[in-house]
Specification:
With 148 residues, the protein is α/β, with parallel strands linked by helices. The chain contains 5 helices and 4 strands.
């Protein structure tokens, strides 16, 4: 496993390549407005350019593409950031500061209680946590609030 930032960028690239996201200008008709539309991006740089417009933030992509960075647990919640859970938050919600995939499954059951959702910051932000296997980080779990 690489760094959290490397994992974050890898997931964003995967989402871009899949095309499985909402694009604010999918229904753009230049005849109906004098605004500029953006084609679906082929790179994170093209995505960053689209994010500089107000039109982008009216809808967003409803994915991690709406975020642009990861931040540390002791940083404040910020728009565009996926902030790591603190050890205290992990222990409170997951019962450990080195959660396994089993620990995560227990608290991220779509049919049951979802305490991780209570830890999400403002719209256009997210959270992250390292998932452990054999006492070592093996993957990163991201979640957040994007779109409407």
């Amino acid at each position: 496993m690489g760094s959290v930032q490397e994992s974050f960028l890898a997931v964003q690239r995967q989402i871009l390549e899949s095309g499985d996201y909402i694009w604010p200008w999918d229904d753009f008709d230049p005849a109906e407005t004098d605004a500029e539309g953006f084609a679906r991006p082929a790179s994170l740089d093209q995505l960053a350019a689209a994010k500089q417009t107000e039109d982008f933030w009216e809808k967003g992509t409803h994915t991690m593409l709406d975020l642009d960075r990861v931040s540390e647990a002791d940083d404040p919640d910020e728009l565009g950031a996926a902030r790591a859970l603190s050890d205290a938050e992990m222990t409170e919600v997951l019962g450990t500061d080195q959660p396994t995939s089993e620990d995560l499954a227990r608290v991220h059951d779509p049919a049951g209680d979802r305490p991780l959702e209570d830890l999400i910051g403002p719209k256009w932000s997210g959270r992250s946590l390292l998932v452990y296997q054999n006492d070592a980080p093996s993957e990163v779990f991201f979640w957040g609030w994007s779109g409407d």
